[in-house]
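Please check the following.

. . .
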Amino acid sequence: LSRGHPLDARAAGTQGAGADPRARRRRPATSRLPLRARNTLLACLHLFKALDPRVSVNEVMAFLYVCENEGLTVQDLAVVGRLTQSTASRSLRALGPADSEWSLQPALGLVRAYLHPNDGRSHVVQLTDLGLDLRNRLDGLIRQAEPIVRERAAA
């Protein structure tokens, strides 16, 4: 936390020669609130970050579009994801396997690209076994989802 932030112990005057050393260990009053550690969306993002901490939002979006539209091309992703063709291409290539010349870092191994049968300049993208596994894990989390904001009981 930055200096001066309300949750920063230094802002409360607990640092310095005469400071009580136990005061630094005290939790701010806001920590007594019932905190929700993780919702479904965050849990899904953590699955991606566990694969590689460098994964980007565009790569997550690209993966999700492939999950819903296996066989899409880079051009298809650019249109449906509202991305430039360059960003769509880089995002899909980052999801490819490490052993492919087509792939870029972080090469997560979630998709594999094949030359389009009717257009040799384009690639068709399919999920790998690892991609299918991740898709199934995401589906499981989504099925168990709880609302971020729960309905309040009528008083």
Q: What stands out?
A: Residues 5-15 have pLDDT under 50 and may be disordered. The radius of gyration is 22 Å. The CA atoms of residues 77 and 83 lie 7 Å apart.
